[in-house]
Specification:
Layout: E1 2-4, E2 11-14, E3 22-27, E4 33-38, E5 42-47, E6 52-58, E7 64-69, E8 76-80, E9 85-86
Antiparallel strand pairs: 1-2, 3-4, 4-5, 5-6, 7-8, 8-9
């Protein structure tokens, strides 16, 4: 996954870890973390500044289609093609 500066067009970060395509990304309200939902059946939580995966969430049995933080960014919800929603 690559993060781009929308103003300059510069690549700001490259985040590697998923083994298949991405379906969704969500920023935490403070902009420090990014969650990514993938066809590899995982969700990863990224420290954007350090460009590292700090948490790999497993449990869905099919593609993870969506992810989003609550307004306080202390909960993450994910939805999957397995017809489950996880908190």
């Amino acid at each position: 996954m690559r993060i781009w500066d929308a103003t300059s067009g510069e690549s700001k970060a490259t985040l590697k870890g998923h083994t298949e395509g991405l379906s969704d990304v969500a920023w935490s309200v403070d902009g420090l973390f990014l969650a990514s939902a993938s066809d590899d059946k995982t969700v990863r939580l990224w420290d954007v500044e350090a460009e590292t995966s700090v948490l790999k969430l497993e449990g869905h049995s099919s593609y993870v289609m969506c992810a989003n933080f609550n307004p306080q960014a202390n909960l993450l919800v994910t939805g999957s093609f397995d017809e489950n929603v996880r908190l």
